[in-house]
């Protein structure tokens, strides 16, 4: 759908874009938007995926993005009043607890984009919400102030110590889980971070929900580009599509060590002597 | 007066001129949120194999100028699950369905055709011979006139149905007309062309090919002139052979080029990834392109570029 850009403004190393989106209804935390880049008839055919940061049903949605490659750099040159094409909401969002349990939200860099929405949802269910935000350096942190306004606590870590605790999110996570008796960990960020977070959660007896980031061509489930090895309820590993079966997966169901490969015991994996 | 956009591929009548391209619309279901799939010319399914197949390692795609490379590796659920789930959905929704099949060897193609010949809801068969022959050191069937013909003969021998059998041709050959002749002699009712062109992108930071499968198939508008040329050549040599055209079609104007070159209908592939409504949009645009040029029907334009 065509959306008029209401505003675009820098936040640290990122850009915050607000779009008129009268056709987008309810958005759940973890949903993403697929944005066309390069203009009509341009050379970039594929959409870019961004977590939905905020939304007002029937009015607007917001995204946070890092100018990175060709498409996101083009997006960064757009200004208020320009029209872009989006498809939203897409994907399976975070699964929310039915009971008012204690939760931790962990995010790396722009992985914090969907987390304010998530924190509000969790709080409205009576959950305790502790947040850990990490980044390489201060400018790459996102959402610290906003999350402080919603969460019970916010802990910041940076690799270079320019803000908060010097180190990784996983350096502070175990203690936080233990102290607050957290039962669920929600995470979004780079894949190595998610892998480490899922392990810490498991080691400390907590469930984890991880929003993964895999390269996507279509975002709607038709191309089979975005797959990763996921263990199903039946114990069988399948190459699941992160755009429609995810992007949120249970942390204990992702074969983290085997991401980017096809494990030999996966459903339909090549057998010795060919398929 | 509205332009008559009905099309035909041999004995198969299509209510609309645009189809989905194999591998670019799964088995249709996911597109249903963007349009009424039963109003498409047909859904051409992702190539199905006998056994479930995991596909290749990721990354499986790289965006390239006006196109993309993919190395999906024919990920799919296998024929049994396909019949139970995908074909059942297509039938329940009255979707005209062309099933694309792929095999590791000649016999597997035959086995798939034998199974599909017995079920309802298969309106056509697209034989994806652009895949490697495990028994011939991985040489692609479509690159060798003899193995291409062997596949088609085997399929034909078990296909006792009026539904047309189309051979999907690869452009990665010295002479595509030679391959077309050989599949026609083997008994196809038409050809689909073109499949992707083999390509590679290198990640110079990691100094290695970017795709998990190293090489990948190039698709999208970048390959469109290659497709138009290939269709033009085959139509010139075999003017009565129905051709399903594909390769980078993005607009009705593009589609009209394919029809004028000799295609009877067109499949929309890569462009669907960025614009899931494209198969419907392009059909509308094609109608307008024809109307504005004073044509009354699509069929009168098939191959028209050969007259001048
Ligand atoms: C579910 C999901 C949510 C995301 N949320 C955000 C977000 O909130 N903010 C943000 O800045 N980024 C987010 N990303 C990453 C963002 O999609 C990529 O940074 C972006 O697609 C890169 O495009 P480019 O034009 O800069 O790079 P290019 O290299 O030009 O991209 C080429 C192609 O590869 C794909 N691609 C490349 N890198 C990635 C990647 N890391 N992830 C997915 N696709 C990729 C692009 O979609 C495009 O099709 C998210 C990714 C996913 C999958
Ligand atoms: C991601 C992807 C998967 C594909 N899978 C198949 C397939 O399973 N079988 C097949 O015959 N062609 C497959 N193709 C080729 C397309 O059907 C089509 O022939 C080709 O991409 C050219 O058309 P396009 O440029 O419109 O995409 C695939 C193409 C893409 C991009
Ligand atoms: S991106 Fe195409 S199936 Fe997920």
How would you characterize the overall build of this protein?
The complex is a heterodimer of chains A (about 280) and B (about 300). Chain A folds into 3 domains: about 1-90, Translation factors (Elongation Factor Tu (Ef-tu), domain 3, Beta Barrel); about 100-210, 3-Layer(aba) Sandwich (Rossmann fold); about 215-275, no CATH class. Chain A contains 5 helices and 15 strands. Chain A has helices spanning about 70-75, 115-125, 145-150, 170-180, 190-205, and strands spanning about 1-10, 15-20, 30-35, 50-55, 60-65, 85-90, 100-110, 130-135, 155-160, 165, 185-190, 205-210, 225-230, 235-240, 250. In chain A, the strands form 3 sheets. Chain A has a 7-stranded mixed β-sheet, with helices on both faces. In chain A, strands 1-2-5-4-3-6 form a 6-stranded antiparallel β-barrel. In chain A, strand 13 (about 225-230) and strand 14 (about 235-240) form a beta hairpin. With about 300 residues, chain B is of the alpha/beta class. In chain B, a hairpin with a 5-residue loop joins strand 9 and strand 10 (about 140). The model of chain B has no long low-confidence stretch (mean pLDDT about 95). Chain B has a single domain, classed as Aldolase class I (TIM Barrel, Alpha-Beta Barrel). Chain B is globular and about 55 Å long. Chain B has helices at about 80-90, 105-115, 145-160, 175-185, 225-235, 250-260, 270-275, 280-290, and strands at about 5-10, 10-15, 20, 45, 60-65, 65-70, 95-100, 125-130, 130-135, 140, 165-170, 190-195, 195-200, 200-205, 210, 215-220, 245, 265-270. The interface of A and B includes residues 47 and 87 of A. FE2/S2 (inorganic) cluster (FES) binds near residues 219, 224 and 241 of chain A. FE2/S2 (inorganic) cluster binds near residues 216, 223 and 241 of chain A.
């Amino acid at each position: 759908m065509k959306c008029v850009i209401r505003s675009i403004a820098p936040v640290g190393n990122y850009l915050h874009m607000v779009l008129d989106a009268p056709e987008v209804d309810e958005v759940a935390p973890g949903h993403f938007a697929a944005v066309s880049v390069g203009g009509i008839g341009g050379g970039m055919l594929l959409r870019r995926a961004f977590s939905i940061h905020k939304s007002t049903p029937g009015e607007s949605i917001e995204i946070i993005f890092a100018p990175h490659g060709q498409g996101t750099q083009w997006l960064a040159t757009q200004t208020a009043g320009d029209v872009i094409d989006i498809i939203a909401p897409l994907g399976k969002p975070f699964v929310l607890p039915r009971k008012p349990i204690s939760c931790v939200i962990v995010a790396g860099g722009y992985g914090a984009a969907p987390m304010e929405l998530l924190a509000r949802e969790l709080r409205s269910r009576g959950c305790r919400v502790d947040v850990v935000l990490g980044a390489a350096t201060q400018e790459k942190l996102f959402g610290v102030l906003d999350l402080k306004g919603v969460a019970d606590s916010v802990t910041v870590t940076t690799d270079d110590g320019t803000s908060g605790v010097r180190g990784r999110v996983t350096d502070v996570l175990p203690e936080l889980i233990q102290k607050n008796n957290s039962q669920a960990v929600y995470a979004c960020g780079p894949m190595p971070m998610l892998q480490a977070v899922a392990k810490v959660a498991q080691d400390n007896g907590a469930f984890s929900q991880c929003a993964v980031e895999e390269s996507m061509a279509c975002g709607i489930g038709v191309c089979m580009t975005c797959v990763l090895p996921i263990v199903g309820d039946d114990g069988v590993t399948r190459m699941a599509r992160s755009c429609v079966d995810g992007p949120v997966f249970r942390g204990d169901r992702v074969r983290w060590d085997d991401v980017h490969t096809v494990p030999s015991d996966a459903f339909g994996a090549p057998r010795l002597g060919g398929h | 007066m509205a332009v008559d956009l009905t099309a035909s591929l041999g004995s198969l009548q299509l209510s609309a001129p645009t189809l989905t391209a194999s591998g670019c619309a799964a088995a249709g279901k996911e597109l249903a949120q963007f349009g009424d799939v039963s109003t498409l010319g047909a859904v051409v399914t992702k190539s199905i194999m006998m056994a479930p197949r995991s596909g290749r390692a990721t990354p499986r795609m790289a965006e390239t100028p006006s196109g993309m490379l993919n190395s999906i590796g024919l990920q799919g659920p296998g024929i049994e699950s396909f019949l139970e789930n995908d074909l059942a959905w297509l039938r329940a929704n009255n979707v005209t369905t062309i099933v694309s099949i792929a095999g590791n060897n000649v016999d597997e193609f035959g086995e798939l055709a034998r199974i599909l010949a017995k079920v309802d809801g298969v309106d056509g068969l697209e034989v994806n011979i652009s895949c490697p022959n495990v028994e011939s050191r991985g040489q692609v069937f479509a690159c060798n006139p003899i193995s291409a013909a062997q596949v088609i003969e085997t399929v034909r021998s078990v296909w006792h149905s009026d539904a047309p059998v189309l051979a999907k041709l690869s452009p990665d050959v010295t002479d595509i007309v030679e391959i077309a002749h050989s599949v026609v002699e083997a008994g196809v009712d038409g050809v689909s062309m073109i499949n992707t062109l083999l390509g590679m992108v290198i990640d110079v930071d990691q100094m290695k090919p970017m795709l998990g499968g190293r090489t990948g198939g190039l698709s999208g508008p970048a390959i469109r002139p290659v497709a138009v040329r290939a269709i033009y050549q085959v139509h010139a040599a075999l003017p009565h052979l129905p051709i399903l055209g594909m390769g980078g079609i993005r607009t009705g104007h593009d589609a009209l080029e394919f029809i004028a070159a000799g295609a009877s209908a067109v499949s929309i592939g890569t462009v669907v990834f960025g614009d899931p409504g494209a198969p419907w949009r392009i059909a509308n645009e094609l109608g307008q392109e024809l109307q504005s040029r004073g044509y009354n029907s699509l069929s009168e334009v098939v191959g028209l570029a050969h007259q001048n």
